[in-house]
Amino acid sequence: MDSAHLTSGMDEHAVVTTRVAERQWHAVADDRVVGRGDASPRPDGRIFISIDAWHCSVFDRLADTMLADLPEPLYTLVDEADVDMTSHWERAGFTTRRREWEYLVPTDPQVTGLGSVPAPPGVTMVAIGEAEQGPLRTLDRTIRDEVEATVGWQEMPAEVLHRPDGVTVPDASKYAAAARSDEYVGLVRLAPVARRPRIGLIAVRSDHHRLGIARALLAHVLGSLHRSGIETASAEVVESNAAATALFEGVGARRAGSNLELVLR
């Protein structure tokens, strides 16, 4: 939603809000839909909500209805530069939980310094689109279990995707992997967003940390993008993730913006 269009020029008494589906709400005035609300469950079980409305009063009415219908805690994401939108959610009772930095990542090895980064001994890179589904899902489940046992998966940047139970890698063609012996020990997820691919996740199995696998995976993926004529990729990094911040800033990535994750408890 473009919050620049949020105005206060509508009589709130003329607006009727209704839950029209399990995860959708409408605000109606004069037989017209003047606002929409959605709830999206994430794979980690959290519920993220969004509201699309032209008027402040419609936003408030939809928020009141949705919050009454849904169990807490609830979450939402806002562009930190969008002060008006942030204030609307804060008025509804939401507070800031964390910040995610958006990075623009160069792909040119002359800029990143990754041109001569070798894979660790015994480790080979599996190109985007060539990873096997079975080993990839096994590694993904292992990494998820490790994250849940420590900081919790909710601390990781995650795409808002509804997935069948147990299916955590729906499309292996979006992944590159690091292989050792007959198993995968690291992965990168690359979303093919138009004009600027997005690095959605870099993860390495805990018993293979500090071997340079994450850096080698990043070098492999960025090099492939550069050879395809793509100059820049994007990535999101949670502010508290010092290791990921150091990895990206160490290859010349620059901050282009930030999102706030807000929560209502």
From TrEMBL:
Is RNA-binding set as a keyword in this record?
no
Query: Which keywords has UniProt assigned to this entry?
Result: Transferase
According to the UniProt entry, its GO molecular function terms are: acyltransferase activity, transferring groups other than amino-acyl groups
Q: Name one Pfam family in it.
A: Acetyltransf_1
InterPro entries per record: Acyl_CoA_acyltransferase, GNAT_dom
Q: Does the keyword rRNA-binding apply?
A: no
CDD domains cross-referenced by the UniProt entry: NAT_SF
Q: What is the protein's name according to its record?
A: GNAT family N-acetyltransferase
Instruction: List the taxonomic lineage.
Output: Bacteria, Bacillati, Actinomycetota, Actinomycetes, Streptosporangiales
